[in-house]
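Re: duplicated header lines in exported structure tokens

Our pipeline writes sequence and tokens for each protein into one text file. With two proteins the header for the second block appears twice in some exports. Here is an export where it did not happen, for reference. First protein block:
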Amino acid sequence: MPLLEIACFNPESALLAQAHGASRVELCAEQVLGGVTPLLSDFISVKSKLSIPVNVMIRPRGGGFVYSAAERERMKREIEMFGREGVDGFVFGVLTAEGKVDGDACRELLGRTAGRKCTFHRAFDEIPEEEMEDALEELIELGFASVLTSGGRKNAIEGKEVLA
């Protein structure tokens, strides 16, 4: 049976996702910003009510995916905080100013996850198409379990040629 993960931006939508057959929830906040780290209190509420796994987006702000040292430190603290509360996995991505996977930053964040499965999120879609294959190999080597991408396009339908 295929996995159906639903991005949910509030506790109510997470409950609805499970009720309608989701296999897993990705809990985020601020859909208008493309998703940011949710409140810990929302995660605790959702986790106590769901029987399916809950992954959490770790993203300090909307906008691009190049983060300052202070933002990366915040991301590390958030990973540890959600980890203590029983999160099932994490969803994050960090790029360099040149639009490449920031391997050092990702390695640091992955090192805080206590072995939980991690997804590299749609930051991948900001990588130039001709570099996506190499970037994917790097993500596999870093230890990401999955990549959330629309093939560098607005949505997966538009990116189907790249995804094929």
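Second protein block, exported in the same file:
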Amino acid sequence: MTVVKICGVRTVEAAVTAAENGADVIGMIFAPSPRLIDISTAQEIAKAVVPAHTKRDPAATTDELNKECSMSAPEYFKACSDKLLSYGRPLLCGVFQNQDLDHILSVVRQVPLDLVQLHGTEPVQMARQIPVPVIKVFHVGADFTVDTAGLFDTGYHSVILLDTKVPAAGAQQGGHGVQFDWTVARSLSDRNVPFLMAGGLSPDNVDEAVKVARPWGVDVSSGVETDRAKDPAKIQAFINNAKAA
């Protein structure tokens, strides 16, 4: 069944809606963005969707995954994805973009976060300095191929994320609702490498996207919004359609 990440969540209500409808990952943006969230709200979301008695040991999880770095890329990323799903609850992901490592580490501790998403041009090696598993974005533009340097490096990031490169957006990539050619993503799944896919997804097209690209998971932000606010009906429909595909 397809993993679903609802990103750009800024309210407890939206987070609870996502969790109750089966979202696997709830993303909160800590980079400059119209969807920027403050620490106190993120902490309230964490309290609302993660049971107080839940044991957290993300550092040990990361250490275990990094020991798998002698595996092939398909084996490594499969081991990583299986480990993340073993939590048995929605995971909290903080999204950062070309930000200072100290800031990232501070947010991880304060919220706390289960995952970090590096959504800029950060080197994959940065993931080794972060004490939770890392989702690393690779922006799909006109010259992109799945053999892009770093994509298949093992022992660093735990999850590959493909998202659309939007040249007009400049440094602020992500959340623009722009699709890329899903057959590019399919070439990754044909190699048996699990990955997340974002970019212009919505309740109306996620079924087709999953059938064409065969991703491990899908990631949505603007596609479940109405007037720039998370729409509960769209969140529910997106999750249902993604998991039924």
